[in-house]
Design goal:
The protein is mostly helical and 56 residues long. It has two helices and no strands. It has a domain of 36 residues. The termini are far apart.
């Protein structure tokens, strides 16, 4: 159970970080940036937070 709770807490932290990035993306939209930049940022951030991409 302890391991499952730890895994859940990691997933929730990643979710919160993703939501924070979405809030930042909202600011990009308000600044009239290109929609494809929003999708690229969201895709990149999600992959990084979920461990599918290494930071350089």
């Amino acid at each position: 159970l302890e391991c499952e709770l730890y895994t859940l807490s990691i997933a929730m932290q990643a979710f919160i970080e993703i939501m924070e990035k979405i809030a930042q993306i909202d600011e990009i939209v308000k600044n009239n940036k290109n929609f494809s930049n929003i999708i690229t940022t969201l895709r990149s951030t999600t992959q990084e937070l979920l461990g599918f991409r290494c930071e350089s």
